[in-house]
Predict the structure.
Amino acid sequence: MAQRILIVGSCAAGKSTLGTALAARLGLPLVHLDQHYWRPGWVEPSTEEWRGQVAGLVAAERWVMDGNYGGTLDLRLPRADLIVLLDQPRRRTLYRAIRRRVLRDRVDQLDGSPERITWGFLKWIWDYPVRGRRILLDRIAEHAPDTPFARLRGPREVADWLAAQPESARK
């Protein structure tokens, strides 16, 4: 069983939702990168501070980690035993982003940083299948070419994949 699982994909693809369920099922510690990155009021850390923080997080022997943050993929990918790409359709991710803003039902809600929607954020989600996915796949090929990889393209695939994971006695 993988001990360090990295979940990546577009914003609002369900990374944190899957991460929460997977960590509980496998009895692994959960790391939501958004909760470590953002400071209250959506303040970003410096690049050096963030890379140092991520280096500390990935040094742990066991984790399920969800989040993108392309500037630290070189630190995270080589440490992962399994990479899960949530490759959801853009209409689903756009819907989920708007829904979680309206309902305020984000799984990894950030203290002091209420969910927000901007045109730039929506454009990033819309463009992800064309640009973001290619960059991510290139980084995986560069930093973790031999790491097992699951590419889940819809809610049914996610549910089936999760159900197929062994439950841990460590819970």
User: Anything to note?
Assistant: The mean pLDDT is 89.
